[in-house]
Design a protein that fits this description.
two-stranded antiparallel ribbon, 2 domains, globular, Rossmann fold, 7 strands, alpha/beta
């Protein structure tokens, strides 16, 4: 039986790095963000539906994320309309991934908003990637185009790290050496595989 591990963490916590560590260890990883990018990229499955609902937000390179963002920002109804297009398509991609890896003992669903979007109910175990607040803040503010105000606005939409950690089966630290993080990932894999075997 495949155990589904939900991998999540707030912005700047190092979730992509940890997801890559799971993949390097041979664990199949479904990246929800990458799925959205592919669906909205050139020839993506949701591009036509997004253009029909939000005219002028797509082009030859797929969805213009800036234009789409401006079309839905601050408008709950428009944002809900966008989610109604994107979420079912991502769910279909996820189901195809799970079917393709049905014989794997462990798969990882890398979902940034696992708690916020309610996806935690569809996984068997949860791993939260975490770092000290000052480390998180320094990482995010070092990103191109990021401001303190934008970072605070993103944080306000995400559950507090402490709450995520409290609900997690595993906490993977990233404010330590890469080797220490890799060891924590290996421990999670061993623990989950041990539980699956027992």
């Amino acid at each position: 039986m495949t155990i589904i591990l939900g991998l999540t963490g707030s912005i700047g916590m190092g979730k992509s790095t940890v997801a890559a560590m799971f993949a390097d260890a041979g664990v199949p990883v479904f990246d929800a963000d990458a799925a959205v990018h592919a669906l909205q990229g050139p020839g993506g499955r949701v591009v036509a539906a997004i253009e029909a609902r939000f005219p002028g937000t797509t082009g030859s390179s797929g969805v213009n994320r800036t234009a789409l963002g401006e079309a839905v920002i601050g408008n709950r109804e428009e944002f809900a309309a966008l989610e109604a297009i994107v979420h079912p398509a991502v769910a279909a991609e996820r189901e195809a991934f799970l079917a393709a890896h049905a014989d794997a003992p462990l798969v990882v669903l890398d979902v940034p908003l696992l708690f916020e979007a309610g996806g935690w109910q569809a996984v068997d175990r949860i791993a939260v990637v975490s770092a000290a607040p000052e480390v998180q803040r320094a990482r995010v503010l070092a990103r191109p185009g990021m401001s303190a105000a934008r970072f605070d606005a993103i944080l306000a939409k995400q559950w507090p790290d402490a709450e995520k950690r409290a609900r997690a089966d595993f906490v993977i630290p990233t404010d330590v050496s890469l080797d220490a993080t890799r060891t924590a990932v290996a421990r999670v894999i061993a623990c989950v595989n041990g539980a699956a075997g027992g």
